Amino acid sequence: MTRKLTPKQQKFADEYIKSGNAYQAAIEAGYSRNYAKAQSSKLLENVGIKSYIDERMAEIASKRIMDATEAVELLTSIARGETKETVYIGTADGVYEKHKEADLKTRISATKEILKRYPDNNKLVEQQIRKLKADADIAEAKARIMNASTDSTEAKVSEYLDKLDDVLGW
After folding, report:
1. What is the pTM of this model?
2. How confident is the model over 29-63, as pLDDT tens digits?
3. How far apart are CA 170 and CA 162, in angstroms?
4. Residues 6+ apart with CB under 8 A from 79
């Protein structure tokens, strides 16, 4: 159970959250300058004050920080052209405000960002995986050839190149 804070302690904690400065927060809360200078760091070590600050910071973070679902929803609305941006146009008659959907480059960029989150649907990722598998197959073939052959180095290289041609289909 959390100990109830005095009004002065709560004010200190709230001011500390705003400024991040323990000395200034103590003064704003009504502590004397001498007390603030000597004891403000100790106020932060107080279990009740510390837990209050932690709870408030978690509350603030959860309200202010975008989660993954919200980020993908925003990207989707940009990609679909649902989100409008404000453009200011200056003319000889004055400045006009126009709301328009995102340009094609921005919409494509948003689409790419969405697709990054779903790699199963991305052709580029499929091609990269295919290339990595081919590279791995080639490396394994090289190792088998080098380990199996007992001839001279020149013969190994010649055999290696012949087999590499077969693997690559040249």
Report:
1. 0.41
2. 999 999 999 999 899 999 999 999 989 888 887 77
3. 10
4. 107, 110, 111, 114
